[in-house]
Amino acid sequence: MTKNLTVGSPMRLIIGFALPTLFGMLFQQFYNLVDTMIVGKLLGAQALAAVGSTGSINFFVIGFCMGVCNGFAIPVAQRMGAEEPSKMRRYVANAAYLSALFALVLTVATGLLCKDILTLMRTPDDIFANANAYIFIIFMGIPTTFLYNLLAGIIRSLGDSKTPVYFLALSSFLNIFLDFALILWFDAGVAGAAIATVVSQGISGVACLLYMRRAYPILRMTKEERRLDLHSCKVLCAMGIPMGLQYSVTAVGSIILQSAVNTLGSLYVAAVAAGAKLFQLFACPFDAMGATMATYCGQNVGACKLDRLGQGIRACSLLGLGYSILALIAMLLFAPQFSMFFLNPNEEQLTLLVELTSEYMITLTAFFFPLALVNIVRFSIQGMGYSTFAILAGVLEMAARTVVGLCLVPLFGFDAACFASPAAWICADLFLVPASMACIAKLRKLYPSVKDEQLVLQKSAV
User: Fold this and answer.
1) Number of structural domains, the chain?
2) Is position 2 within any domain?
3) Do residues 46 and 201 touch, judged by C-beta distance below 8 A?
4) Of 178, 220, 261, 325, which residue is 20 to 30 A from 440 by alpha carbon distance?
5) CA-to-CA distance for 101 and 323, rounded, in angstroms?
6) pTM of the predicted model, to two decimals?
């Protein structure tokens, strides 16, 4: 069930690990896309705009949850590469305790502040009620987000990228069924789409937990390994919190940008919402590459095989370049057709909506290779143990989106909004690429004299 990524061709290993991860992410995006398609086609552009207007705050909170879980998985991967199963199991147990605590605090806080956040974002009055109904339910499902993402991260750290796909497939089919049931049969509106997402992810997480207990003997813990360990918690937080903050800091810029787009009116909000869903689908390969490189670099650092770090980054970057070219060609040829996946053919301003969505997507895909580098290099750095660098890269992305949102969107309107994310990716790359070289150089100085979890704390202090 597990896989060693420290031996063999980096390109072959990366492709073999990334493909199942990609399928899993496609399943995850699939049920997110179903929400948007059903909302847009059955409930109309205003309902689509309501869901879309919550995208940045959704990413701010849920992205933090996912980042924390990914960070918790890195010490697991490093101890797996170092062939220290007892320490690995101790990290798994304490990651579960920390996840439960984070989930409780975030669920309460976001539930209480939900309306205030939407007000600060200047959400248009005609979509405010639906936006609040949707995002409140998503926030109440934060425990299910932690459950699935922590378990999936642990499984991938063991070298198994296939198993999480099966449970995401289960979640996808459940989500589709619940979408139709709640929206068509029970007339639940946008709240039904949110309930379907939370319930399906929760079922997937529970099923994954039950399967792990039976199928992974390496995770069977002694009473001592299950004990709360403050040192392990400190190591996990040193990895997880910076990765979570990286998502949230990046999302701050997205929130400011979304607030600027909201001032343009619900028609533009709907176009960005449809374009954002297309973007999430087309960007899945980059997410899979990032998740792969985190595990790949984590295991190789644990095994002290530092020469393989640069080899893996170069191999994965070539894959990212090839896909970026194919994605741009596809979007140039079929952008209007892709846009119609999320738009109602009977909309009064359909032609303008299609034009705006197509412009948004073509602009983003033209800069896909910088995005590929962001994911590949950032997750590689995180896998090496330098999670703090992720925050610095996120700050640069936030700054770029903030400048565009506050200064350029009021002057140039929707055209400026289309270039906000490309500007953020380029700014992040200018920092991440040289930072990755510095991280590898620092590791060469640390190894092989230091080879235990204390190394994590030393590196995280950078």
Assistant:
1) 1
2) no
3) no
4) 325
5) 39
6) 0.73
